[in-house]
Design a protein that fits this description.
Layout: H1 9-32, E1 47-55, E2 60-68, E3 71-78, E4 83-89, E5 100-101, E6 106-115, H2 117-147, H3 152-166, H4 170-185, H5 189-214, H6 218-226, H7 231-261, H8 273-284, H9 287-318
Antiparallel strand pairs: 1-6, 2-3, 2-5, 3-4
Helix pairs in contact: 2-3, 2-5, 2-8, 3-5, 4-5, 5-7, 6-7, 7-9, 8-9
Length: 320
Amino acid sequence: MIKHHKAQWPWHGLTALVLIGLAFSLYAATSRISYEWHWNRVPQYFVYQAEQPQRAEGYGSVEQITGQGGQTRVTLRDEDGGEQVLRVDAGSVVLQEGDDVSEGDQIGVTRHWTAGPIAWGLWTTLWLSLVSGVFGLLLGLVTGLCRLSSNPTLRHLSTVYVELVRGTPLLVQIFIFYFFIGTVLNLSREFAGVAALALFTGAYVAEIVRSGVQSIAKGQGEAARSLGLDAGQSMRHVILPQAFKRVLPPLAGQFISLVKDTSLVSVIAITELTKSGREAITTSFSTFEIWFCVAALYLVINLPLSYFASRLERRLAQSD
């Protein structure tokens, strides 16, 4: 029997029309409020040429100015006969040969490329997500196993931790951790931010781990113990590898949420990506352009993470 596949191009065309309609709606909305786009203001917040002034060390005069490629060599002679040689960018020299100079006078500038505030904010978001994600994963794994423990103390304490963290907003937890615990223990805002994010992530990872382990048939553990493995070995070599395959999608979703949750640590003056965007808006007055760039950078982080998780999930499914 010959199978007839339905044509997919109408649906692709419909998808394109929807996207075009959304783009047109955005354009119409900005036109109604007479918004002027200034994308040329955005690149300087990613990378820009910083200027470092070069100044005279003492009183004297300009003895010689010579060009060397893209730089200018300025020789100063002080009152005691000493010589100071400065190399500045061509065209930045503000004096001529024979001019007198005083201590601290600017002779010229040197320029070099440096990362802008949004680039630094992106870096802060990345390391916050990575560090808090690693600690949250470890904490969640231990807590999830404690919730399955036969020891009542471990089970009850882990349950209190999970329910307490999941039942309160992350923003409130950040405030409590920084202004109360951080003040008492004299913690830095970065440490407090990482700790709050890790504790929050660990509670959700614990529930993911617990549900994944409980989804494995009890016969798996019984079979492992019948082969001579103790409870720890059975969990480590038999149960957890199978559970990991099942919990990978929710774990990936949790870490994607963590990347976005790092925006909340801006309330304790950590300049991550979102706070960097707000600061850029105050100086550029390019509200829509900056927020679109910030949103795109979050996508740049999360889309590869989602793709990697889906690839790993397919590979693990093939290994069954």
